[in-house]
Amino acid sequence: xxxxxxxxxIQLGTPDSPKNxxxxxxxxxxxxxxxxxxxxxxxxxxxxxxxxxxxxTPKSAKIYKQxxxxxxxxxxxxxxxxxVKSLLQKRFDSDNVTIEMAMRYQNPxxxxxxxxxxxxxxxxxxxxxxxxxxxxxxTGSAVEKAMSIIKKWWVIPEIKIISQFYNxxxxxxSIIERAKEFDIPSYDKIMFSYHGLPERQxxxxxxxxxxxxxxxxxxxTEENKFCYKATSYETTRLIAxxxxxxxxxxxxxxxxxxxxxxxxxxxxxxxxxxxxEGNKRVLAFSPAxxxxxxxxLIEIGGEYQEIFEEHGGEKVQLVPSSNDHPRFIDCLEDLxxxxx
Length: 340
Prior knowledge:
By secondary structure, this protein is an alpha/beta fold. It folds into 2 domains: 5-164, 3-Layer(aba) Sandwich (Rossmann fold), CATH 3.40.50.1400; 169-318, Rossmann fold, CATH 3.40.50.1400. It is 45% helix and 15% strand. It is built from 11 helices and 8 strands. A 4-stranded parallel beta sheet has the order 2-1-3-4, with helices on both faces. A 4-stranded parallel beta sheet has the order 6-5-7-8, with helices on both faces. Helix 1 (20-31) packs across helix 2 (41-70). The longest helix is centred in the N-terminal third of the chain and has 30 residues, at 41-70.
């Protein structure tokens, strides 16, 4: 009898619709996660439910409406993740492997999907969060949620967890192939923009010292191999090497900050400065996101375009995410097969 394997792909999540009620529900679940806002419970409760959600929901709902319009009436994140699941399943049609997909927040929920996987009685589970670079707020949260559900099962099968894949050749190649759609030399500046994190969250990676003590911008070491900042810079170096870029042709920056105590440099400030300096065309990568979403299509493709124009620039060109590119499916297939 062949080994029966279930693979769970996990994405961050999306509201069920751009309606205020659905956006409010999504924001509450997302922001109340102690790995996302890592402050004491009652302080987090007051901040999220008393300040952030009431004031942010109407604005966020309008932005999600723009995103749904770009996605033909559906969340692009959900559309691409469903496509990835389907394409990856086809790679295993001759094997005893079933690919499932869940969202860390909202639907399809991890509770419902893992309940189905529990009933399937797999010999082995492979948990694969779709975040190339490990962060406690993304990969860590997804794995913690999965294990909190699985630990209640009477029979727990063999479990493999894939924590990150930022240096997998298939993932890197999927970004390279997307970049080939553009005439790179025609751009004045190249930005690699990653989702930001509070400085305190990357500091928590280390038993001794702070992130700033570990040369995270320069190399991967035994100490910083799970530091989000370090793996973001390494991801960029791998992409830049394949594109033939020199160090002075690009910058690594971080977007979506909530305050000034997040990892720097800030992407929006970089864009503003480039416009003031007379640059006209920017090519922007967002390698932390394997599927286009609000942060890529709206924040970079829309908001950064407006900032750039306000300060004299002309065009911020977003390089699409890996989405369902064949080389990204190659990456996921290899990750699964090497963990049988």
